[in-house]
Specification:
two-stranded antiparallel ribbon; 5 helices; two-stranded antiparallel sheet; 52% helix; 151 residues; alpha+beta
Length: 151
């Protein structure tokens, strides 16, 4: 490779990396985060940051206080996962928006903040937030994609 070809190659790589950082990387981060937070509902039943902080149990899954057997409908409801409503609106609402230099993950369901942050009247069942494991996943995916550009 001649010095001119090397310079041209480096310039192209620089342009490609800049495009990646401004366009593709935020999309990768947002998509990875949305999928990661959705897994809090489906698999973890809690929030993962270094370890899983399990969500507080819900009343419908606790044994009946009066000792009477549950009706078939109550048994079905008792078997449902925490924060998994009949419609699964909350878990399905997790989405992301890409902006300059990053992405924001959110839920547009009106009651999402009550669960995620707690409000004093209900227990906190965080499903979106900072997570060391998520950071590792995002960085690994971005590094993998960058290696394809730089090779």
């Amino acid at each position: 490779m001649t010095p001119e070809q090397f310079t041209k190659s480096l310039t192209k790589m620089s342009v490609d990396v800049k495009k990646f950082v401004h366009a593709a990387a935020p999309k990768i981060a947002g998509k990875t985060a949305a999928e990661f937070f959705t897994e809090n509902f489906a698999q973890r039943q809690g929030f993962l940051n270094r370890s899983v902080t399990p969500w507080q149990e819900v009343d419908r899954r606790r044994p009946k206080a009066n000792g009477l057997p549950r009706t078939p409908r109550q048994q079905t409801e008792a078997g449902r996962k925490i924060l998994f409503g009949k419609t699964r609106n909350l878990s399905r609402s997790i989405d992301y928006e890409v902006h300059e230099g990053g992405a924001t993950v959110f839920s547009d369901v009106a009651y999402a903040a009550y669960h995620n942050d707690g409000d004093g009247a209900i227990p906190q069942r965080q499903f979106i937030g900072d997570s060391a494991e998520l950071d590792k996943l995002v960085m690994a995916e971005i590094e993998r994609k960058l290696k394809n550009i730089i090779k």
